[in-house]
Specification:
alpha/beta, Rossmann fold, four-stranded parallel beta sheet, ANL_N_sf, AMP-binding enzyme, AMP-dep_synth/lig_dom
Length: about 600
């Protein structure tokens, strides 16, 4: 039997299911339903699904925008013995014809038995009907309530998590009931969730693992109070996030780095007393590279409203691990690991800088780096610290990684340049992380290599357009595709192995280039991409593409290119072969908002190599 489903049902039928619930539609039209009510609706929906001949193991896709519809629909699929696939939703800049074609490919790949549709996607039924894809509208899904869940064992698929990577071919991570139960337990323990007191506030998309697993499934399974907005709500008014935390006494939230950066800028302009963020104790940062400066700015801006520095928790995660891989230790606040840049780039070793002063990282997070330097001065391994999770993506898959801050050319120890990486904490319970070289030899502490993962929440494999593909080797290890190291047991991620730029025998990480470019006034935050160019007969090179509202003004573009080139040179000690200035919304992104480097390189090839 599925321990995951057993716990979900037990919670709904307990006193907690009658007391705790989910609020949607806030602040304009808030509606709250306790988990017992959600479960009653799910039982009726499950009765209809079983009546529609959904069998144990069948894949059922869900396409809806309202969390109040998605929660009982997803639960109904699990009660009926099926697996849930949350389909990617189109955004304002999505080409709808391409999205429809991609969605149909996904449905064929997962062999979907049924598609459940909800507002605002009811009209998609016409497309599905044309292609003879079975569908039902969630609001019309009602049958005789199931007396008990359809029994499935722990090895059955519970979730097919679609990846959000750069390739045209879709892929889904297969998450079993046992994977889900194990990771939910591990994350709950690491976050020290209190089901009687914690209030989760989230706007994250439910087609992403951090939103679906961390901010809907976990509250539903354990009976946590949940306030759920939508991504459109956040993008339309970013400070709604802070408003909901303030109004509902939110204690737990999560978001990608860019969201904290946006919220920090908005909070800095908000009037005193506008919010009360003193209740927030666990703010998970993940799903994309973490910028220590953005974290510092958010915490500084939030301090006026009672936000505590130690509430920020940085972590590492990926869909292949269900969600979480490692969380920074609670209460330590965001800190970084400051290492010698040249030794890292040339020898692949993260040697702590023990003599740097606070000015060594003046353009990064001065006080955060000062904390890390102070730590390294007394502890050469700098093993205390936090970094951050989300999201999330092993190249194509939604994994949560972290970034680094570079201070090339600025004085570190003995005048040497330094780099600063967020530390992401030890692996969660039930998981192992090791670092290996290109030959599979395990590396030691602070040696940089490929991160591999093994444990109870690691996926057994993928579904692809060419059929199932295993994710683990013979010994159960998953290759994450990420390059990084372990520092006294804590995980540090340097970047994606496939994106590393090698120049003069030095490894240069795209995140460092992108962060330097985004520091230039006029470049849209989070909208710069570093692109490795094929070496061919020449040495390896790279270009930079940035979005700016100055695009189209020749003199402004020239000045912007000069400044970006200078900042990148200063940051990584290498010159881009070209800097391309683009208007807003030009760079291709995944459905979850990550930049797609490979797609950008293909799309911009004529400009990049000009």
């Amino acid at each position: 039997m599925s321990r995951f489903v057993d716990e979900l049902v037990a919670t709904a039928r307990s006193a907690r299911g009658l007391e705790r619930g989910m609020t949607t539609g806030a602040p304009a039209r808030p509606a709250r339903r306790v988990w017992a009510e959600v479960h009653r609706d799910a039982l009726r929906m499950a009765g209809a699904l079983v009546g529609a001949e959904v069998r144990p193991g069948d894949a059922v896709a869900v396409l809806a925008g309202d969390p109040a519809l998605i929660a009982p629909a997803a639960q109904a699929v699990w009660l009926a013995g099926g697996s849930v696939t949350m389909l990617h939703q189109p955004t304002a800049r999505t080409d709808l014809a391409t999205w429809a074609a991609d969605t149909l490919r996904v449905l064929r790949m997962i062999d979907a038995r049924l598609v459940l549709l909800g507002d605002p996607f009811d009209a998609v039924g016409d497309v599905l009907r044309q292609h003879r894809v079975a569908f039902r509208r969630i609001t019309e899904l009602a049958g005789t309530p199931l007396a008990e869940p359809v029994p499935v064992d722990g090895g059955h698929t519970a979730l097919l998590q679609l990846t959000s990577g750069s390739t045209a071919d879709p892929k889904a991570v297969r998450i079993t009931h046992d994977n889900l139960a194990a990771n939910l337990d591990a994350m709950t323990a690491a976050a020290r969730l209190d089901v009687g007191a914690d209030v989760v506030v989230s706007w994250l998309p439910l087609f992403h693992d951090m939103g679906m697993v961390g901010c809907l499934t976990a509250p539903m399974v354990f009976g946590l109070e949940l306030v759920k907005a939508t991504p459109a709500d956040f993008l339309g008014r970013p400070l709604l996030w802070m408003e909901l935390i303030s109004e509902y006494g939110g204690t737990v939230t999560a978001g990608p780095n860019f969201a904290y950066a946006v919220a920090g800028r908005k909070l800095a302009k908000a009037p005193d007393g506008a919010y009360d963020l003193s209740t927030l104790r666990f703010a998970l940062n993940g799903a994309e590279p973490i910028d220590p400066e953005a974290v510092r700015a958010f915490l500084d801006a939030g301090a006026r409203f009672g936000l505590r520095r130690e509430s920020m928790v940085c972590a590492y995660g990926m869909a292949e691990a269900t969600l979480g891989v490692s969380f920074a230790r609670l209460g330590s606040g965001p800190r970084v690991d400051v290492v010698d840049a040249e030794t890292l780039a040339l020898r692949g070793r993260a040697v702590p800088v023990t003599g740097a002063g606070t000015d060594a990282m003046a353009d990064a997070t001065a006080d955060t780096v000062a904390d890390a330097v102070t730590d390294t001065a007394t502890d050469a391994t700098a093993h205390t610290a936090t970094g951050a999770t989300a999201h999330t993506a092993t190249g194509a898959t939604a994994h949560t990684a972290t970034g680094a801050t570079t201070a090339a050319g600025r004085a570190g120890h003995a005048g040497r340049p330094v780099r600063a990486f967020p530390l992401l904490g030890p692996p969660l319970a039930g998981l192992e992380v090791r670092v290996v070289d290109e030959h599979g030899r395990e590396l030691g502490d602070r040696e940089v290599g490929l991160l591999r993962l093994r444990g109870t929440s690691v996926t057994p494999g993928y579904l692809t357009t060419d059929g199932p593909v295993p994710a683990q080797d013979a010994d159960g290890w998953l290759d994450t595709g990420d390059e990084g190291y372990l520092a006294s047991g804590e995980v540090v991620v340097c970047g994606r192995r496939k994106d590393v730029i090698i120049m003069g025998g030095r490894n240069i990480y795209p995140t460092d280039i992108e962060r330097a470019a985004c520091a230039v006034d006029g470049v849209r935050a989070g909208n710069a991409v570093a692109l490795r160019l094929d070496a061919g007969s020449r040495r390896e090179r790279f270009a930079v593409a940035v979005e700016s509202r100055l695009a189209g003004d020749p003199s402004a573009e020239r000045a912007l290119r000069r400044e970006v080139t200078a900042r990148v040179m200063d940051a990584v000690g290498a010159r881009p072969v070209n800097v391309v200035v683009l208007p807003p919304s030009s760079l291709p992104k995944t459905p979850s908002g990550k930049l797609r480097r490979a797609a950008a390189r293909d799309r911009l090839a004529p400009l990049l190599d000009a």
